[in-house]
């Protein structure tokens, strides 16, 4: 299962977000059930970032979202949002990367 999250940050907090992310990225990536994750930034709007994470099961994602780790991250970064976060849980229909 893939989780896509779009975060729109206040311009003055983009660097705060990146610095904070750098302190927790390995912990998130190593969380049980997480197959890997990425942070991506919009090329034209640096205040828009996306997290892309893959999870073994939906339950693994829920365990992360209910974890002490998530509880230690979310209240901090939420203060830096310009807009409410948007999130999608997806299943892959076609993966062209896998056949290249």
TrEMBL record:
Gene3D superfamilies in UniProt: 3.30.70.100
Top-level taxon of the source organism: Bacteria
PROSITE patterns noted in UniProt: ABM
Keyword Plastid: no
Residues of the ABM domain: 1-97
UniProt keyword annotations, A-Z: Monooxygenase, Oxidoreductase
Name of a matching Pfam family: ABM
GO molecular function, one term: monooxygenase activity
Protein name: Antibiotic biosynthesis monooxygenase
Organism of this sequence: Brumimicrobium oceani
Source organism phylogeny: Bacteria, Pseudomonadati, Bacteroidota, Flavobacteriia, Flavobacteriales
